[in-house]
Amino acid sequence: MATFIDMPKLSDTMTVGTVANWLKNEGDAIESGDVIAEIETDKATMELEAFEDGILLKQIAKAGDQVAIGAPIAAIGEEGEEVEVPDAAAAPAAAAPAAAGEEAPAEAAAPAASSSTSPSSPASTPSSDSRIKASPLAKKLAKAEGIDLAGIIGSGPNGRIVKQDVIDAKSGGAAAPVAAPAPVAAAPVTLPGLAIAEDADLPVSTMRGVIATRLVESKVNAPHFYLQIEVNAANLLATRAKINADLANVPAEHGGGIKLTVNDFILKASAEALRRVPTMNRAWQGNTIRQNGSVNLAFGVAIEDGLLTPVIRNAESKTLKQIAIEAKELIGKARNKKLSPAEMSDSTFTVTNLGMYGISSFYGIINTPNAGILSVGATQTKPIVNEAGEIVPGQIMTIGVSCDHRAVDGAVGAEYLQALKTLLETPALSLI
């Protein structure tokens, strides 16, 4: 008798999942442990394994379908066996809400933006290795077989290369190499009024819908108030430059081989400031206010379809170097859709940084139940007055904090920013 594979619950907040891509086709032999599909949740895109042997008799949900938790998405059984699909399983779940908001998803499962392309230049053809869309299994197999993904046209959603495309390419089958580009004609003259893209109603990914819902809930339910402070980052920049210069001369096996970023210093100082002002490390819980005993520090990582927030746990007990190494690892996982839901859960405070985009100041939406989110702007050269009363150049960084007034008051937010300013302007304090 056929066995149904149901949509699994892959995170605590997941109510529906999207079949991002099928890695096995109907009729394929399946062994226990085989990855048969990629499932997009509200937090990440994760691989779905089969737990018994058989034949993939039917793909009940198609790629792109949203399916409720526990509803069947496929059937496995013996070859030739007929499958009766329950009526309730025939229709995909309703699309995720498209409320306004901002925060997370996995890069490969995000819908591609509509763009104007000519028939002779397929939209699915990647223009460089860095923009090739391929499943993790396809990339792994291509690397093992020495196959150039740039020569494969993907059959997955939005031209994504899947494992079968690589197998076909190896055997000289259906996947065809990319044709050589035609001679480039002279660029057309751009006239006023030409559209920047085709009009289109883009589907909302599962994760994008959850992001929108959560941020609307945060703005509606958590009474935000905002504080801002200016930091002279000259000492921080000088300290970072000196440490990086020294590390460049140290072999990796002796602790070198890394390069600290400004954001690493900010993460370390943010955690240390919470040690000094623990009342900022709280969460509103309705009838109680949770005082968190350790700092689980979330930080924003921008990807194609939004923002992921991996978490550095017990950040207050980690050195600057440990935080830098862990942050780099988490950023790599985020950009390669390898973060697990556990690596994005249970944060107590969040840091978001748009300084690399030249944004001077901004305020983030609180990542509830956190009591606050720190917003870091770009460092800019501005005139300042030194202790001698002289006007001199300064390296000014503007930092803001959005606070949940249910859990903390203005004085707490102000004390936290003062502690953070002290730590950033005297970075050696974070090294103690």
TrEMBL record:
Domain Peripheral subunit-binding (PSBD), first and last residues per copy: 133-170
Disordered as annotated region, ranges: 84-135
GO MF, one annotated term: acyltransferase activity
Enzyme Commission identifier(s): 2.3.1.-
Keywords: Acyltransferase, Lipoyl, Transferase
Domain Lipoyl-binding: residue ranges: 2-77
CDD domains linked: lipoyl_domain (cd06849)
Domain of life: Bacteria
Keyword Transferase found: yes
CC cofactor: (R)-lipoate
Biased composition regions of type Low complexity, renumbered to the chain: 86-135
EC class name: transferase
PROSITE patterns: BIOTINYL_LIPOYL, LIPOYL, PSBD
A cellular component term, taken from the record's GO annotations: pyruvate dehydrogenase complex
GO biological process, one term: pyruvate decarboxylation to acetyl-CoA
Function of the protein: The pyruvate dehydrogenase complex catalyzes the overall conversion of pyruvate to acetyl-CoA and CO(2). It contains multiple copies of three enzymatic components: pyruvate dehydrogenase (E1), dihydrolipoamide acetyltransferase (E2) and lipoamide dehydrogenase (E3).
Family recorded in the similarity comment: Belongs to the 2-oxoacid dehydrogenase family.
Protein name: Dihydrolipoamide acetyltransferase component of pyruvate dehydrogenase complex
Species this protein is from: Pelagicoccus mobilis
